[in-house]
Amino acid sequence: MQKPLFPLIAKQATVRRRGKVLVGPVDLTLGGQGTTIVIGPNGAGKTTLLKMLHGIERMNGGVLDWACPIEEAQRRQAFVFQTPIMMRRSVVDNLAYPLQLIGVARREARARAAHWADQINLGDALERSAMLLSGGERQKLALARALIREPDVLFLDEPCASLDGRATREIEEILLRAAATGTRLIMSTHNMGQAQRLADEVLFVLHGRIHEFSSAKTFFEGPQTAQADAFLRGDIVE
Amino acid sequence: MKNVIFGVVASLALTTAALADDMKLAVTTSFHNSGLAEILLPEIKADLDLDVQLLVVGTGQAIRLGEAGDVDAILVHSQKAEEKFLAGGNGTHRREIMYNDFVFIGPSADSAGVKDAENAAQALQRIAQAHASFVSRGDDSGTHKKELSLWKAADLDPAGFDDWYRAVGAGMGAALNTASGMEAYIMADRASWLNFGNKGGLELLFAGDPVLFNQYAYLPVNPEKHAHVKNDLALKLEAWLTSDRAKELINAYKIGGETLFVFNAKQ
Amino acid sequence: MADLLDGILQALWLLVTLDSDLVEITLRSLRVTLTALVIASAIALPLAALLAVRRFRMRRITIAVLNALMGLPPVVVGLIVYVFLSRAGPLGVLGLLFTPTAMIIAQVVIIVPLIASIAHQSLRELWSDYHDLLISMNASQTQRIKALLWDGRRALLTAALAGFGRAIGEVGAIMVVGGNIDHATRVLTTAIALETGKGEFAMALGLGFVLIAMAITVNLAIHWLGHTETEGRW
Question: Of the residues A87, A184, B81, B245, which has the maximum number of CB atoms within 10 A of its CB?
Answer without folding.
Answer: A184
